[in-house]
């Protein structure tokens, strides 16, 4: 059944003060939930550039209805990825409570890369920065802060090499992104081999000096912005 796209045109009621009140229709809530569900599917299959017009069409709605609920693509991305973001952030925070800092570090990286592997759109989303969205900026800042805490805890224990920064974790995210895309159909778990090769490179024991310094915060930020253009 096709959904009507005039979901804000509910018949007016009159409250006790005599003023007209227009409650949000149940149709509007249902349409919003439908759009989020279809967006999750589209972004997972096609990445963050999935067609919004096709999402609206599949929902049986006009594109204007989609934009009334989600004025920008980033608004829809946030709504679509919120459950996965919350799940990952909760899992990431628990790694700081693990008794062994090295195990916590490895578990954090495994959880991060596994979350990427399950959703192409989420894979894109955490690799990029969207400067005009305060909500995504706060999310990425929190992710980088968590990564820094996990790294510093491992370094304090002498397990993680001392020259690693959160920029190196984002570089791992970028590399993992390409591996996931390249092997999605042929070998969907191939990313785990590369991850554990990288994990060995993060060990403090017998590490060698690196030829280049880590990206500065400004360089890292600009690189993540560049991926959105």
From TrEMBL:
Signal peptide range: none
Pfam families cross-referenced by the UniProt entry: TetR_C_43, TetR_N
Residues in HTH tetR-type domain copies: 29-88
Top-rank taxon, per record: Bacteria
The entry's keywords: DNA-binding, Transcription, Transcription regulation
PROSITE patterns (alphabetical): HTH_TETR_2
DNA-binding region ranges: 51-70
GO molecular function: DNA-binding transcription factor activity; transcription cis-regulatory region binding
Protein name, UniProt field: TetR family transcriptional regulator
Organism (species): Acrocarpospora corrugata
